[in-house]
Description:
The complex is a heterodimer of chains A (394) and B (860).
Chain A lengths: L4 H18 L7 E2 L4 H6 L30 E12 L4 E12 L22 E11 L4 E10 L5 E4 L4 E4 L2 E5 L7 E9 L2 E11 L4 E2 L5 E5 L2 E19 L2 E16 L7 E11 L4 E9 L9 E5 L5 E5 L4 E9 L6 E10 L4 E7 L5 E2 L5 E12 L2 E12 L7
Chain B lengths: L7 H13 L1 H40 L4 E5 L4 E2 H9 L8 E12 L8 E8 L1 H4 L6 E2 L4 H10 L3 E5 H7 L6 E8 L2 E2 L3 E9 L4 H6 L3 E5 H8 L4 E2 L1 E4 L3 H10 L4 E5 H44 L1 H9 L4 H45 L12 H27 L9 H31 L5 H51 L1 H39 L4 E5 L13 H8 L4 E14 L2 E9 L15 H9 L3 E5 H7 L6 E5 L4 E10 L8 E5 H8 L6 E6 L5 H11 L5 E5 H15 L1 H28 L1 H9 L4 H43 L9 H28 L2 H6 L2
Parallel strand pairs in B: 4-10, 6-9, 16-20, 17-19
Antiparallel strand pairs in B: 1-12, 1-13, 2-11, 3-4, 3-7, 3-12, 6-10, 7-8, 7-9, 14-21, 14-22, 15-16, 15-21, 17-20, 18-19
Helix pairs in contact in B: 1-12, 2-10, 2-12, 2-13, 2-23, 10-12, 10-13, 10-16, 10-23, 12-13, 14-15, 15-16, 15-25, 16-22, 16-23, 16-25, 16-26, 23-26, 25-26
Amino acid sequence: MSGAPLRCLVYTAVVLLVSACGNPPSEQDVPAFSSPIDALTVDGGAKGFARAETVREFVFPEDHGPHPEFLTEWWYFTGNLISAEGRRFGIQWTIFRRALAPEPDPETPDTPEPQSAWATRQLYMGHMALTDVESERHLAAERFARGAAGLAGAEIRPFRVWLEDWSATSEGDGLWPLTLTSGASTKAGDFRVELMLETEKPMVLQGDRGLSQKHEGGASYYYAFTRIGARGHIELDGRRFEVEGQVWFDREWSTSTLDSEQSGWDWFSLQLSDGRELMFYQLRQSDGSPHPMSAGSLIDVDGKKIHIPLDQAELEVLDRWRSPKGGSVYPSRWRLRIPEHGLDLEVIPVLEDQELEIAFRYWEGAVDVDGTADGRAVQGRGYVELVGYLPSET
Amino acid sequence: MRDFWPTPLLRRAALRHLKRRPWLAGLTTAGVALAVAVVVGIDLANASAERAFRLSVDDVAGRATHQIVAGPMGVDEEVYGKLRRSGIADARSSAPVIEGRGRIDPAPDTAKGRSVRMLGVDPWAEAPVRSFTTGPAGGAETLTGFLTESGAVAVSSQLAAGWGLEKGDRFTFAPQGADGLQPSTELVVIAVLEPADERQRRAWEDLLLVDISTAQDALGRHGRLDRIDLVLSDDGSSQIAALLPEGVRLRTASARAGALEEMTQAFRLNLTALSMLAMLVGMFLIYNAMSFLVVERRPLLGRFRAMGVGRRQILVMVLFEAAVLGVVGSLLGLVLGQVLARGLLQLITQTINDLYFVLSVREVSRPFASLALGSLLGIGGAVLAALGPALEASGVQPQSALRRSAIEGKERRRAAGSALLGLVLIAAGGLLVALPGRSLGLGFAAVFIGTLGFAALIPLATLAGSRLLTPVAGRLFGHLGRMAARDVGAAISRTGIAVAALTIAVATTLGVAIMVSSFRATLVDWLEITLKADLYASPTAQDGRGSGPPLSPAQLAALRGHPAVEHVSTYRRVETMSSLGSVQLHALHAEAPAFEVFSFKDATPADIFPRFRAGDGVVISEPFAYRHGLRPGDTFDLLAEDQSRAFEVLAVFYDYASDRGLVMIDSGLYQQLWRDDRIQSVGLYLKPGSDADRVVADLRSRFADEDVQIRPNRELRRISLAIFDRTFRITDVLRALAVAVAFFGVFSALMALQLERGRELAVLRALGLEPKQVRRLLTAQNALLGALAGVLAAPLGVAMAAMLVFVINKRSFGWTLQLTVEPTALLQSLALAVGSALLAGWLPARRLLQRNPASALREE
């Protein structure tokens, strides 16, 4: 699972722009500062940005920090937590960076350099969500801020990514331990989360040595930490819960957008009780069939990665759920089989309604896993992301 | 009650009477109209300025309930980041703001530029606080364009229409300082804002909306915000207040508007008072016209009385006539007033801009209250002014009414009574002034009562003048001269009022003129003392809040290091918070000789200097001391960068630069407490024998490529006086208006007088007097009336000036001025009085002479 909603936004924008051309523009005045999400739909094309085209050497800690020469990137944490009294929570912590225009070429500055600390072309967007299984609630919030004047940004030494009071902060030169904070006042309630993270497994370079191909001519740089120990607390409606659990961290940056044939994806990140993790994404084409570049990876107990091409996986939707808010119909339970590696898993959302009701609507939620590995019973927990199910898009 | 209301016949008689005297009715109406127009015009202009000011404050505050503000430097932008990172829920509805003014020049070679308001915001933070709308398909591009396009600006549709600006057009913006413009920035239009309603349409008239980064660059305000607007709950405000560093305050959004409005209150009250003086003159005019209408009809009224018409009916009939004139005059006055308001508005905004803060108003608003007030004054004034004559008319005895001489005889007796009343009124006015307290309203009341009292003296003075002059005129001009002089006294019921109206009008102009020239003379003296340094240097751009660019250390060193420079004074002017509200703080570094620029109340610079330099306290200007009731030895708190500290007042100095007053502090102490070592301007004292002009040329070439202005002290004096003159231009207009109203008064009074004397003149003609001689007689009489008014206006004018200078001005602004009466001003007012009397008398005289004496004789 990855920060794909952003790319879908761009895709959505293309759809909207195309449809707008067919209709005369409305005569009504519009807000000068329309929803910030609209800003992202002004896609000046990818001209002037670096592209993920070849396998590269990753350099740390620099690569934990921002890559403004690329159009977009994200820091994406998801995790399943349990409180001392046994209360189950899911958490999503995501910050996206998006360049509104390429950075000026330092060789040939086009116009007088802005002196103001507020000047920037980098926009940051955050999505934070908490799933409270016991009260069947999903609390979500989004924010936007410019990557300047201390409002939002990403730094390398020590590592820090933040958007206002949402932050992921390291202390020394290394990434771990990492402190994660989020919180928001939402319609469904108020929450604050503070977690201390320490990875349990080494980093994985996804795709081909970190180059993850999404379609012909479209790829991203992608690494992940697939099993991270977490401990901390959650404040919910004035109550404090001491929690612990496991978190997954995805890092991805790119300039490519979705292929015009691709309409969305289903993304799985599962942590199994036998010590392995499974990542699998199925990119859907306009006709509903999986795009051939859909793929996944299986991480073994020692952190070794095994590539799973599309033809080794079988994904079957067992149930569907209709969102009462947007009318989207999302798949809601799956059977995922990878016979090559003896996996036969049922993936069940801990709560049907984990749709993020924000400017850009999608489903991202905690799931349970139940099934067999080489015939032996296996359980697990994870997160699933479902994008491209808006009624207008189908 | 039946005999109370005049019968239809009487009402018709009244109206027909007005119709038969079209000149008189017309003049009276015109006088009422002019008086109402002055009152309404000033009131509308005042109200429009205030409304425009409110709108600009409201619009910019948006839905904000609170604002975070700080001292002279504005709010450190870090505060905003800290707020946003705090996690306090309410901190999320906060928006940073930078505001500034400047001029735009779409095509530098064409037309003159226009003053505009630049509003810098963070579009990502605006939603909770303000909404801006653009035409279709503007939203997303505006949002991203603000960050990605250098110099991106959204302009209001009015601005776009006015300048023919379209999306993609480029123009330059030069920020405005108190005495110059900063280097300009090129801006590009990325969107045109469409106001959602009338209120926004007016508030956005001159709006340039830009990203906060563009505003910081264009206005040269890096690292700082003017304020942070917030929409807060009660809980939120206490949480946020607790978060703010020392020196940064959270205040309610309405507090700002109130503070600014208070600044201009005295100024606006003064304008209103001047308009009331015009109204007073107008009321004399009505009184005059109505008296004539009554006097002239005495025979008719006597016949009515003989026929059994009740006194009350006569009374109401005369009042009815007055009301008709009042209504017509008021309606005309309302129309005229709106035209007048347009012109006055510009003058008022100019003054407010020069003295207080930048305000741009282009539309006259028409609050109902202003119009209602004008009509009420016009109609009420007419009826009130007619009350005397109406009572007089109703008191007419059936037989005696037939005798013209009866009234004049009575009138002469009454002149003495009136004079007595006048003395009482003058004494009452004096008493009002003597009352302790600082009420401006009481001060004005005293001026009015005193003026009325003086007016009541005029009939007696006119009689005396006539009696005194009769033999003199006889000796000088023979028979006709004697006749002219005696007639002035004989027709006292006419002439007394004409002279009173003219006297008051001329005295008003004289009083205001003396006040302005006293003010100017005081200012000239003060500038002479204060601008003592040979040269002054400052960056080209200084904005009013003192946040303009400072002189760089290299520039300072170059100025100090010039071989001809003996020592320098440095200045830094900022706005800071204190226990007494927002105050202007000047940080001064001066050597002992330069400290002589101060003239202290009850102290010498030599006494004060060591203590000031040691940082023992501050010195404050006279208006500041007056406003806050401070004396040497008192203390008050100033909010320094991170702490509030008590300062002792060492002395009070005379200063005419600001009616709000200012506080002067030693720059060493200021730099230490405010952590601000910027210098905005320096005064250079040259070594004896240096050639100032050569040093100016020297320094100007040294700073040829930098934004540093070098000015000799005489140039600064000239600029200061130019601003002063511009500020007081409005008083010239008001004086002219008062004279115009008075002119109508004199015109109608003389018209009445001469119409009435038609028969008498016809007799003179029949006795063999040449038309030329009659004209000479009339001219002499008019000149005499004018001269009487001119002479009487001198003491009244000087008294009014004294009141304005020592009472009104002191109470409004706290300034001590020296009263300077120039003989030329007195001569001018005499010439004005005689000139307007001659001019006003010319037309009636001509009409009179054109009439056939025979038909005039037959008339009765």
